Design the sequence.
């Protein structure tokens, strides 16, 4: 077995204007693993800055590793700091404000987008040599492969 270590140094972080943060995406990680059906990144929010408010069709988790700030999910705001884990459900507008004097760093993972679910279904169908006929999504044509309707909790959860 080979041990793979992913190290992120200060020079590895790249400013992502779309999100108003500096980050380094973990995948693709060519030496270790093909890009999975989920994503991850190390992210820094600079002192006094707020990540760009956004929402998406994926579940997302933040693991706060350094600093502190204010996490907003929908209308709810909560203080977060190193050691906190934040869960954000799909389609919930969210942002993170660093109201401290040092960087606020977290690891984020996201999963479950319609595109990723369809790609994963197709991958496993090919692995097992079966046809992936997909399912009928609400309002979608049969066999579209877009997935089944799922009950979604629309509230994000912030935990300690």
Sequence:
């Amino acid at each position: 077995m080979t041990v793979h270590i992913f190290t992120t140094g200060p020079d590895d972080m790249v400013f992502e204007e779309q999100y108003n943060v500096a980050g380094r995406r973990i995948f693709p990680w060519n030496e270790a693993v093909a890009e999975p059906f989920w994503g991850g990144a190390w992210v820094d929010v600079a002192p006094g800055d707020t990540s760009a408010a956004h929402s998406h069709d994926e579940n997302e988790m933040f693991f706060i590793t350094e600093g502190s700030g204010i996490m907003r999910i929908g209308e709810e705001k909560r203080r977060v700091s190193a050691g906190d884990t934040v869960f954000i459900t799909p389609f919930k507008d969210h942002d993170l404000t660093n109201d401290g004097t040092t960087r606020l760093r977290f690891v984020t993972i996201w999963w479950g987008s319609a595109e990723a679910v369809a790609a994963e279904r197709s991958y496993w169908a090919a692995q097992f040599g079966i046809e992936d006929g997909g399912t009928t999504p609400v309002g979608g044509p049969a066999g579209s492969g877009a997935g089944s309707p799922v009950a979604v909790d629309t509230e994000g959860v912030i935990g300690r």
Remarks:
- Residues 136-154 have pLDDT under 50 and may be disordered.
- Residues 71 and 77 are 6 Å apart (CA to CA).
- The longest helix spans residues 114-128.
